Amino acid sequence: MKLHNQIVFITDADCRTGSSLIRRLTEEGAQFILNSRSGGAAIASELTSIYAAGSQAFVVNIDLCSRAEADEMLKEASLQLGTVDILIHNNNVVMPASIESCEEERFLQSLNVNAKSAFICTQAAGKQMADKQSGKIIYISSIHAEKPTGSSFCYSASKGAVKMLSKEAALVLGRSGINVNTIELGPVEGDNEKFRSSLSTLYNDYEYKVPNAVLGDYDDLAELVLFLSSGESRYINGSDIRLDGGFLLHYMNFKMKRP
Questions:
Q1: I want to staple 178 with a disulfide (CB 3.0 to 4.6 A). Which of 26, 130, 173, 242 is the partner?
Q2: What is the DSSP letter of 174?
Q3: How many CA atoms lie within 13 A of 93 on its CB side?
Q4: Confidence band for 194, pLDDT divided at 50, 70 and 90
Q5: What residue numbers bound the domain in which 165 lies?
Q6: Annotated catalytic residue 206
Q7: 51, 139, 155, 203: the active-site residue
Q8: CATH of the domain at 231
Q9: Which of 208, 203, 90 is nearest to 148 (CA)?
């Protein structure tokens, strides 16, 4: 098992990303700290699988933008499980927003949910990792840290902030044996709804903008997260790994592969 007794902190357990990560990492012997807005109700089957595998899960519902709450939660978790070995920040909220008309409150909300939470969790978990001179931090971000969405500029801005946070963290925390990397996830099923916009055609026929016209899924993401969480990735630090099947190469409507 690649993650036997490693303690993995997942910041959004309830989403589809969280479910896939829990299933895959359970198979590798991980123990979990799971931030769940539903208090565990939305991940009941995943929790059953964790316990059936002989692993443990510490389920919480905290404000990830509060350093005090994060510190207190990790202190409690350390008494039950131990300190964090792997932080996976997978907060990913898309709010429709035009740069011409977006209200300040919505802009700040997007930055808080997607970016400030990453900063707070990095500080809190990073301190535990630095104390033992080892750890992994993985930000599950988006290709829209690189390219506009056309439908939610504040989302792109928040993911761009996470991109630079990862670089700064890799430089500083790397001196304490901590690897910090970002996965820039591309389109999966449902993203045409997530990024639907009257201003942009980017996600119209988006499945055909993947050169092979085959979309990836969250299981593909889980495999990459497993690799970055394991000792096999020991010399990868400060990297952005694009997981998009080549979507950005077909960013515009150019010779799409149609059935």
A1: 173
A2: G
A3: 18
A4: confident
A5: 7-191+217-249
A6: no
A7: 155
A8: 3.40.50.720
A9: 203
Q: Domain for residue 152, yes or no?
A: yes
Q: Residue 198 has what DSSP assignment?
A: S
What's the helix, strand, coil split of the chain in %, to 5?
Answer: 45, 15, 40
CB 187, CB 221: distance < 8 Å: no
Contact 131, 81 (CB under 8 A): no
Residues 18-42 have pLDDT tens digits of 999 999 999 999 999 999 999 999 9
Nearest Cα residue to 251 out of 207, 202, 211: 202
Rounded distance, CA 12 to CA 61, Å? 10
Number of domains in the chain: 1
Q: Quote the DSSP letter at residue 206.
A: G
Structure tokens at 210: 């993947």
What is the per-residue pLDDT for 254?
47
Q: List the one residue out of 167, 142, 136 whose CA is nearest residue 157.
A: 142
Residue 198 is assigned to a structural domain of this protein: no
DSSP state of 244: S
- Report yes or no on 72 lying in a domain: yes
What's at 158, amino acid-wise? S
